[in-house]
Design goal:
- The complex is a heterodimer.
- By secondary structure, chain A is an all-alpha fold.
- Chain A has a domain at 98-266: MetI-like (MetI-like fold, Orthogonal Bundle), CATH 1.10.3720.10.
- Chain A has helices spanning 3-31, 36-41, 47-57, 63-75, 92-127, 132-146, 149-163, 179-205, 208-215, 220-242, 244-258, 263-272, 276-304.
- In chain A, helix 5 packs across helix 8, helix 8 (179-205) crosses helix 10 (220-242) and helix 12 runs antiparallel to helix 13 (276-304).
- Chain A is globular and about 85 Å long.
- Chain B is mostly helical.
- Chain B has a single domain, classed as MetI-like fold (Orthogonal Bundle), CATH 1.10.3720.
- In chain B, helix 9 (228-237) crosses helix 10 (245-273).
- The longest helix of chain B is centred in the N-terminal third of the chain and has 37 residues, at 67-103.
- The radius of gyration of chain B is 22 Å and the shape is elongated.
- Classes of the chains: A mainly alpha, B mainly alpha.
- Chains A and B meet through helix 1, helix 6, helix 7, helix 8 and helix 11 of A and helix 3, helix 4, helix 8, helix 9 and helix 10 of B.
């Protein structure tokens, strides 16, 4: 497939996914049993109060019309208003706009941490295959995959904030306060990437072209870090990029544990307050970011490696 | 198949299988082994937050209920929930995937676009979006929420397999002999799906337990007593209480046990069945 066609197809599929995601997010509120108006109004609401809520949420018109309005809210970039009393409150988009940078920062630092830790671990384990270091790294990676996020977060707080007092605790937003949450959010990915790096390196180290590189007298350092790593690292970095979305959704738990502002905190607060437009907005924005990042990663990969475009 | 011969399994498979077996045994017999009753009737406000002792090996929780007994009852909940979710997801996913792979063309394209939409929700987001709409999600809705993204993995695996299997000579031969489509699908193709689906089943057991724990932790759980997730939620909110750390650790270790077991077994099986995939997580 030529490059232009590949990019167009990938973009088209991505847009299709985005449309599907909007339909699904819209449907959740209408298909899942339980009437949102009941939940917002409570048992003792008068018919007038109920009607007001219905009007505010736009539930008083036909389904296709509701969906059209929903798309309209996406198009005019307000993502809707907070119900039942929209007056004086920021639009959903404004709320998300405030929260989003915090979550992106957390996810990016988590991603950076995961890559920076995973690559050396994986490379070294591959070079020292079968030694105690390799075994230790494997055990560490498995533990990182198995330990639940919501246990790791509080444990980190307990050790580094309560017991040792080295790092800031919950409710703080300074640069140092991002270290623990980023560690907690990135550990799972770090473990995954370390395993991938190791196996990719092991595979590449057995290739003929490396034997050639050694045979022509290149120093081992160049062979490993330049020739081997360059081939092994591609799939690892791709997976890291594709996992960015899971970091965004991981923020729901981690922001909760560390009481940090962000999309996750906003989403949970909105769920507790039954603020459905905000719930819809948050879910939509997280899913859309994930789709966009995936498109970007795929296109970038297609640019670098022509073999990808075949599929 | 050579892959199924004993003695060819890696240690990862053995360790994983034994860990899974322990989990299943405790899930089946755990509540019978529990030294104390659990639930609201077992509340004992004279023995709240008891430390580890001979009478309560893992202490008690905020209502004086024995921790070990909760863990054992939680094992039953976890086993039931994950079996139901994995069963439903696998059935739906494999069926859809087989249809897509066998029909190809427009049907395949349409199904895969729907799969893409479900894949656009990273991690827990889809589960959260579903349970968030209801004030107190009951068990059926909770199971539905976990199945909502559970089926996708099965559909992809089944589709990929069927796409290649349908071109094999023996399938062509069956078709030439006049076998009907359902017969070809269930009689000739389905048996070859068992191995890759087993890998997926093993891996998704861990995912279901982890997802349940995460949702319960966020207060979006099925409100069933003594799931490990609910225990972890209680444990972490009292983690600061001196002498009470073991409660969260016990629940966390139980969850980690199943996730680890599922990963070891799943990865090991995949390596054995498909050496090209070795180590690709």
């Amino acid at each position: 497939m030529p490059l232009g066609a590949f990019i167009l197809r990938r973009l088209g599929l991505g847009l299709l996914s985005l449309l599907g995601v909007s339909i699904l997010v819209f449907l959740f509120l209408h298909v899942i049993p339980g009437d949102p108006v009941d939940q917002l109004a409570g048992g003792e609401a008068t018919p007038e109060q109920r009607q007001k809520i219905e009007q505010c949420m736009g539930l008083d018109v036909s389904m296709p019309e509701q969906f059209w309005n929903f798309l309209g809210n996406v198009a005019d970039r307000t993502l809707g208003h907070q119900c039942p009393d929209p007056k004086g409150k920021p639009t959903v988009a404004a709320l998300i706009g405030d929260a989003f940078p915090h979550t992106v920062a957390l996810a990016l630092v988590g991603l950076a941490f995961a890559i920076v830790m995973a690559l050396p671990l994986g490379i070294y384990a591959a070079l020292r295959r079968g030694t105690w270091f390799d075994t230790l790294a494997a055990i560490g990676a498995l533990s990182g995959i198995a330990i639940p996020n919501m246990l790791l977060g509080p444990l980190l707080l307990l050790w580094f904030f309560v017991d040792l007092g080295w790092l800031p605790g919950p409710f703080e937003v300074g640069p140092a306060a991002i270290i623990l949450p980023a560690f907690a959010i990135g550990t799972h990915l770090m473990a995954m990437l370390a395993r991938m790096t190791r196996s990719a390196m092991v595979e590449v180290l057995g290739e003929d072209y490396l034997r050639t590189a050694r045979a022509k007298g290149l120093p081992e350092r160049v062979v490993v870090w330049k020739h081997a790593l360059r081939n092994a690292i591609m799939p690892v970095v791709t997976v890291a990029g594709l996992q960015f979305g899971s970091l965004l959704s991981g923020s729901i738990i981690i922001e909760n544990v560390f009481a940090r502002p962000g999309l996750g905190s906003l989403l949970l607060a909105a769920i507790r307050e039954r603020n459905y437009p905000v719930v819809q907005g948050c879910v939509l924005v997280i899913a859309a970011s994930y789709v966009l990042v995936n498109i970007a990663v795929d296109v970038a990969y297609g640019l670098i490696d022509p073999r990808v475009r075949r599929g | 198949m050579r892959a199924w011969q004993p003695g060819r399994w890696s240690p990862s498979v053995w360790v994983g299988a034994i860990m899974v077996a322990v989990f299943v045994l405790l899930g089946v017999f755990g509540p019978l082994l529990a030294p104390y009753p659990v639930g609201t009737r077992a509340m004992d406000l004279d023995h709240m937050y008891a430390p580890m002792s001979w009478s309560h090996w893992l202490g008690t929780d905020k209502s004086g209920v024995d921790t070990l007994s909760q863990l054992l009852h939680g094992a039953r909940e976890a086993l039931l929930l994950s079996t139901i979710v994995v069963g439903i997801s696998a059935t739906i996913g494999v069926t859809i995937g087989m249809i897509a792979g066998y029909a190809r063309g427009f049907v395949d394209e349409a199904i895969m676009r729907v799969v893409d939409i479900f894949l656009a929700f990273p991690g827990l987001l889809l589960n959260i979006a579903i349970v968030a709409v209801v004030a107190r999600p009951g068990l059926p809705l909770f199971i539905a929420a976990l199945c909502a993204n559970g089926w996708v993995g099965y559909a992809r695996v089944a589709r990929g397999q069927v796409l290649s299997l349908r071109e094999r000579d023996y399938v062509m031969a069956a078709r030439a002999l006049g076998a009907s489509t359902p017969r070809i699908l269930f009689r000739h193709i389905a048996p070859n799906l068992i191995a890759p689906i087993l890998v997926q089943v093993s891996l998704s057991f861990g995912n279901v337990i982890a997802a349940e724990a995460s949702l319960s932790f966020l207060g979006l759980g099925p409100q069933v007593d003594h799931t490990w997730g609910a225990m972890l939620e209680q444990g972490t909110s009292f983690l600061w209480k001196p002498g009470f750390r073991h409660y969260a650790l016990a629940a966390g270790a139980a969850i980690a046990w199943v996730v680890l077991a599922a990963n070891l077994l799943g990865d090991g099986l995949r390596d054995r069945l498909d050496p090209r995939q070795r180590g690709r997580a």
